Inverse folding.
């Protein structure tokens, strides 16, 4: 008699997507942030195409990282506040599937739109067209890893909502993703073989999918009695 | 998962009282050993070892930089493992050891970073060089700050300990990934820089003081860890009768 | 000894400033790592003494209450 | 395996023969032995011991802050207990965690209602998968929220959100109910409704463990006083 709460992956994916699509405002903030900061770069640094395309790979990735970080905090905080996290913890099944469901919903709502929006910024930074596909591939894989690792930080800092602490916890863990992500775009821009860093990103994603839910379920149980 | 082991020695090991009394006797010897090791290592390294052919005398900073970074990295693993032991067997003492290991590790990482930066000036002409070793050390410092800062999210000690243990375990998994990816990143951008820790290829009597210094730093780490842990035990076990009795009949004790 | 005079040891032909400054900073941090826990232990001891006195005075107050309660 | 069965059978017949008062039919649903919990290195309440049989309702009494909510979190296996043992139908919790949690309905202080979902979606989410639509609408009817079915819970009052949570009592199929102060912020009519559900659940052989400051005469079989450890410091 496993009730709906332990329905697992599909149930939580469906529910979180429904909730995210219901309040559209919440959805667009990280995307607006992504575009807005991209506009600031040429104003702050230099409009010349040569200068911009030199820093474009790293910059696109830093913007994607910050946009994900901005939105990851609300992954568990609403459930923690209204008590549905308590009901989730009581469900007999392992926490892994519901957690993966919620993170996939978060990725579909934040990560995927970022990836689809990134060509706009690539054009703003006069990135060569050949680098467009590798950039979107690296962002698609990378934002998933960012959501997974960010969810670990969100679960551990649940009792006290402070953006800075979450960033401090999660930033060091984001470094490898940032390195391989921007290296993929840089390799594509230089015409080198960009599959190698992309493969590393996929490996990081595989490791994150397996290990992060363990840390997150432990973090959620700890937060409940924090 | 209250997976409680009946191995008596294992549980006796876990009782804060046994730890407090045992370390009471070890402390003086450990302090003397640490002092002796550090003094001999430093005097030997700074005064007697020959200077490096290329770098001249500024290479002597290696006797502080390398031991600090080695012990700082090992300290992170010690912290994560004692956190894991606390999580699995729910031994409060190992949580206390984890909590004490964090500030010591952060301080040693800070020493490694400062000495590395100062060393960079004479050799490369700039205080900060994005060398792979130094960059990874900087990320390790932020990992330490994360574990220390996490304490304040939780009101009760048990939850704070468990959260710290989970975070340091996540960090432990990530430390090798970070070090390897920073190395890979380094080959991408600056292939031809000298490697900092070219220890084995050094001249024997340059290398000998380094070994003495590394052992000295390890014993310093254990000395500081025991001191921090004892303070932590008194702070958290103040209700226990043995603590009250300890305080009443030796108020004058240092 | 590699250096033949104390003055040379100090200057280490130009690199002395770097070596000795990093030595000084490390020494300060390491001494801090020893002094801080000792001071924390002191504070914990004082705190416990305070509590013991507090408890003793509370018990004493309770005894006096119990003692004169039956008379009134 | 057969020998063990006959031993149990033989044991019961001896019991009946000796006329022991534990009726053969009801078995202990929940048994708690010297349960203790430490928070901030201090023991929260005196070791807890009680037994809950099928068809019984046990009320937990205790002043505010005596650890009632913590006790419920221990019983729902959210918190690991520092010492003591909880067993469900004779088996320790660590062995039968799946069966135990499938059979438990817990309603705490928080209603667990998602603001962005409608009342009906929330109730469907919190009820077992195979609950029919009629049962959902009947439950909403009983708590007086049937005309709010399609309204988002964001614009509902706290009392109404509480009723959505309590509507779960009618759709639940769990045997063991753990209710942490179900009657708070409920009007008279709401209290009667909860009492009716609890009585009906008891007659169907379910067990209830609840904490409340009001005493529900016709429901409670026994109550258990939770003594907090008085902290002198």
């Amino acid at each position: 008699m496993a009730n709906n709460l332990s329905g697992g992956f599909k149930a939580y994916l469906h529910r979180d997507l429904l909730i995210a699509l219901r309040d559209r405002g919440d959805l667009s903030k990280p995307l607006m942030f992504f575009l807005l900061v991209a506009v600031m770069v040429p104003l702050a640094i230099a409009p010349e195409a040569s200068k911009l395309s030199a820093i474009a790979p790293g910059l696109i990735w830093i913007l994607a990282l910050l946009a994900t970080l901005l939105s990851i905090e609300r992954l568990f905080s609403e459930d923690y506040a209204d008590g549905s996290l308590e009901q989730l913890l009581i469900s007999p099944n392992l926490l892994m599937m519901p957690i993966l469901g919620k993170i996939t919903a978060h990725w579909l709502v934040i990560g995927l739109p970022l990836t689809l929006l990134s060509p706009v910024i690539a054009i703003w930074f006069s990135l060569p067209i050949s680098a467009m596909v590798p950039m979107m591939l690296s962002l698609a894989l990378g934002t998933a890893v960012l959501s997974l690792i960010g969810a670990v930080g969100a679960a551990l800092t649940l009792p006290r909502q402070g953006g800075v602490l979450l960033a401090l916890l999660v930033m060091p863990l984001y470094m490898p993703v940032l390195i391989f992500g921007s290296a993929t775009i840089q390799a594509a821009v230089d015409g080198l073989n960009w599959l190698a860093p992309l493969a590393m990103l996929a490996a990081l994603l595989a490791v994150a999918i397996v290990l992060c839910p363990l840390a997150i379920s432990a973090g959620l149980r700890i937060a409940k009695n924090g | 998962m209250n997976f409680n082991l009946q191995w008596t020695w294992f549980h006796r090991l876990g009782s804060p009282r046994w730890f407090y009394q045992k370390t009471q006797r070890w402390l003086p010897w450990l302090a003397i050993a640490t002092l002796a090791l550090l003094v001999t290592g430093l005097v030997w390294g700074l005064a007697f070892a020959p200077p490096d052919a290329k770098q001249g005398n500024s290479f002597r900073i290696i006797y502080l930089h390398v031991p600090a970074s080695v012990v700082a990295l090992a300290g992170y693993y010690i912290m994560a493992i004692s956190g894991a032991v606390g999580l699995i067997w729910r031994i409060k003492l190992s949580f206390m050891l984890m909590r004490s290991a964090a500030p010591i590790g952060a301080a040693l990482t800070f020493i490694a970073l400062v000495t590395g930066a100062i060393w960079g000036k004479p050799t490369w002409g700039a205080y900060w060089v994005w060398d792979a070793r130094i960059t990874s050390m900087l990320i390790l410092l932020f990992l330490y700050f994360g574990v220390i800062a996490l304490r304040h999210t939780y009101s009760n000690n048990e939850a704070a300990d468990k959260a710290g243990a989970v975070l340091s375990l996540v960090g432990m998994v990530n430390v090798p990934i970070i070090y390897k990816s920073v190395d890979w990143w380094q080959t991408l951008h600056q292939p031809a820089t000298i490697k900092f820790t070219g220890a084995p290829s050094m001249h024997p009597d340059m290398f000998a003081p380094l070994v003495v210094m590394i052992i000295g730093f390890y014993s310093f780490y254990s000395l500081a860890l025991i001191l921090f842990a004892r303070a932590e035990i008194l702070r958290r076990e103040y209700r226990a009768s043995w603590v009250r009795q300890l305080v009443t009949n030796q108020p004058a004790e240092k | 000894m590699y250096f033949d005079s104390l003055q040379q040891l100090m200057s280490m032909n130009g690199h002395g400033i770097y070596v000795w400054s990093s030595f000084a900073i490390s020494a300060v941090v390491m001494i801090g790592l020893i002094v801080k826990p000792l001071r924390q232990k002191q504070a914990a001891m004082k705190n416990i003494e305070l509590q013991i006195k507090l408890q003793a005075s509370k018990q004493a107050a309770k005894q006096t209450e119990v003692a004169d309660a039956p008379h009134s | 395996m057969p020998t063990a069965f006959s031993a149990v059978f033989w044991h019961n017949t001896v019991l009946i023969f000796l006329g022991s008062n534990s009726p053969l039919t009801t078995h202990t649903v929940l048994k708690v032995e010297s349960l203790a919990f430490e928070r901030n290195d201090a023991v929260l309440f005196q070791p807890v011991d009680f037994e809950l049989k099928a068809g019984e309702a046990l009320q937990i009494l205790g002043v505010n802050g005596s650890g009632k909510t913590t006790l419920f979190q221990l019983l729902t296996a959210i918190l690991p207990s520092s010492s003591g043992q909880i067993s469900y139908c004779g088996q320790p919790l660590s062995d039968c965690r799946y069966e135990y949690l499938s059979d438990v309905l817990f309603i705490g202080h928080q209603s667990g209602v998602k603001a962005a979902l409608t009342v009906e979606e929330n109730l469907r989410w919190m009820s077992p998968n195979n609950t029919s639509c009629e049962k959902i609408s009947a439950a909403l009817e009983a708590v007086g929220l049937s005309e709010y079915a399609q309204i988002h819970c964001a614009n509902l009052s706290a009392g109404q959100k509480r009723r959505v949570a309590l509507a779960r009592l009618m759709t639940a199929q769990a045997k063991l109910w753990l209710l942490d102060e179900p009657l708070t912020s409920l009007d008279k009519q709401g209290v009667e409704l909860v009492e009716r559900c609890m009585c009906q659940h008891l007659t169907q052989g379910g067990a209830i463990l609840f904490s409340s400051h009001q005493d529900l005469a016709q429901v409670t079989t026994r109550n258990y006083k939770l003594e907090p450890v008085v902290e002198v410091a």
